[in-house]
Design goal:
Blueprint: E1 8-12, H1 13-29, H2 35-46, H3 49-57, H4 61-66, H5 71-78, H6 84-90, E2 93-105, E3 108-119
Antiparallel strand pairs: 1-2, 2-3
Amino acid sequence: MLKNDPNTETSSEYDAILKEKAEAKKVLASKNATASEKIGAKLIEEFDPAAEVYRLQEKTDEELQKMGMSDARIQIIRNFKGTDAELQALSANCSVSGNPKYTKNASGQWAKITFAFSWDKRTNLANERCVGCSSDNRIFA
């Protein structure tokens, strides 16, 4: 549904995590950030996607298969060394498509945007922390 849509943006889960970590560093360095923003930034900064993979190594192959893991992904988990390439290969991709509809009438102009989300595989790196991604390639935990 989303793959051939010209309005579709796709973002890697791992790339989104790296972007969030970079933003978190800026927030923590900022003198204008609120306490709440700094707490959120600290949580993002402390998140270690490699630790999630090491946690997955504790599961049996059967458990990983029940989680929707392919044999290829299970092999990466079993042989995981912590490289960016491995984390990229294990991460899911989120595709987001928006279909805007604009209307102008006597009371003004408004827009309605319908978003569709699609994951190419089960998310693993952000695990329960990832509840969605936005059109600006940010994940929210």
